[in-house]
Amino acid sequence: MGYVKNINAHILATKNSNQIAVIIYGMDKDNNTEPSIIYNIIKGVNRYAKGIGYEAVVHLNEDPELSYLDFCRQRGLMGVILFGVNYEDKNIKQLVESDFPCVLIDISIEGENKGCVIVNNIYYSMQATSQMIARGRKNIAMLSGHGHSLVEIERRTGYEMALSNNGIAIDSSIIINADFDLNKAYVETKKLLAAHPEVDGIFCASDFMALGALNALKECGKKAPEDVSVFGFDGIVLGEFFRPSLSTVRQDNLQKGYCAAQLLCGILNQSQQEKTIVVPCEMIIRDSL
After folding, report:
1. Taken in order 180, 182, 184, 190, is the CA torsion positive or negative?
2. Cβ contacts of residue 3 below 8 Å, gap of 6+?
3. Are 95 and 102 in contact (CB under 8 A)?
4. Are residues 139 and 203 in the same domain?
5. Is the pLDDT assigned to residue 124 strictly greater than 80?
6. Residue 151: which domain range?
7. Domain count of the fold of the chain
8. Is there a domain that residue 2 lies in?
9. Which of the residues 94, 154, 199, 222 could staple to 121 if both were Cys, CB 3.0 to 4.6 A apart?
């Protein structure tokens, strides 16, 4: 008879949804968003959702003033997974402080109906920096983000711990904010090398900044790793094919998405005991080290 079920009407009438919603922020930042990261997170969410008869729905948000709580309620969402958000954002704090079920990726949270999927940024940043120290690097700079995201704070902590554990003084003048941006990392690295020619290693809080740093080294007549070692974090696809290929900490984004969906469903079904899932990373040693 040509009847097609209206999913939205069904949700409204029954107050039940078979959808797992994902809200992603930062898609418009072309220089900083690696498509494979977002793709694999969504793929992981969908893989778990499909396996238990749920549907994965993706919402994109580029409005920093948007209330996430209002957004979720207006669309009748039962719960949500968030990726790419700033933990200091007032709208995120409003959502976290509410009783609305949500799972955050890359941000540690606690509370009723809350969960998070994270990686041990401190440990892996410490390991990456230690790899450079083990190869004789003594003046290791760091390219950080914009100064206040939880991810970069943790990665800076690991970097500083590695220096301290090896008896190397921490020099704040060679810890530079580059906003997780490839072009800014390129500019800031050139300034860094001009002001501090003694720098022989650069740990970067993201692969995009590491690629910018490698381009800057070429412009300055320096070679990696002969003159300056470079280590990134994330494991983006481009790093493998860049020359020199980029040493990095590879995150398992598919697993992060899968675990986030599993965690959210457990919260919605009131069957989830563990509220924090830590996904392991992999150290990838390539030519830039």
Report:
1. positive
2. none
3. yes
4. yes
5. yes
6. 121-250
7. 2
8. no
9. 154
